[in-house]
Amino acid sequence: MDKKSFFNEMAASWDERFYTPELKEHLNNHLVPLFHLRPGSRVLDVGGGTGGIIPHLLQAVGPQGCIFSIDFAEKMVEIGKKKFGQEPRVIFKVASVELLPFEDEFFDHVVCYGAFPHFDDRPQALREMKRVLKIQGTLIIAHALSSKEIKTRHKGASPVSQDCLPEEVEMRKLLEENGFHVLQLIDQPKCYVCEILKIY
Ligand SMILES: C[S@@+](CC[C@H](N)C(=O)[O-])C[C@H]1O[C@@H](n2cnc3c(N)ncnc32)[C@H](O)[C@@H]1O
């Protein structure tokens, strides 16, 4: 089975499986504040799935901000659209990270929560996320797990069993080579946050 089919199959049970009250509390009080999203900003949620993190992003950007969410798995997007149909600050699209349907320098922040390990062409994903970011905008790569915990979580779950985050040295190299500057990289139990600035 390919990855898109895998995520499409999981879409219906995704929120119930992963978005426990504990995770929501953790996102709200610990993880999302580390993203340093500016109130009023326009945010792209890449590989956003059913939009589980969106309530937390909305809280961070406030009434003047807005969230665009893209995912290549149509069933994930379908559920997200139903959940946020009444919310004018949220827009969902089916799209792949390798070809983002947005103009250059459109976003203040790009958030990639729980998705980066699954991207097959990382240099192209980084090029596209950088292209749609404003200069001095930030890319946030985050998980509610450490990089070690991600490896354990994905083990045995074909076709994502090999999907993990690069080691810190490799991650920094990949980002710096692609025109980003790493502002912070936290990798500890239940928390991975890499905050990256677009410098040119
Ligand atoms: C582990 S899920 C996380 C979903 C969501 N961010 C969350 O945490 O609830 C990873 C998501 O990335 C999406 N994805 C994987 N590769 C992608 C790609 N190349 N382009 C767009 N979305 C992708 C999958 O369809 C899936 O919904």
> What is the annotated CATH architecture?
3-Layer(aba) Sandwich
Q: Determine the CATH superfamily.
A: Vaccinia Virus protein VP39
Bound molecules: S-adenosylmethionine
Q: What is the N-to-C succession of helices and strands?
A: HHEHEHEEHEHHEE
Mean pLDDT: 95
End-to-end gap: 39 Å
Number of helices: 7
What sort of overall outline do the alpha carbons produce when their principal axes are compared?
globular
Please estimate the helix content: 25-40%
Give the total of beta strands.
7
What proportion of the residues form beta strands (DSSP E)?
25-35%
* Whole-number count of domains: 1
Strand order of the largest sheet: 3-2-1-4-5-7-6
Which structural class do the helices and strands define? alpha/beta
What is the CATH level 1 assignment? Alpha Beta
* Alpha-carbon Rg, integer: 15 Å
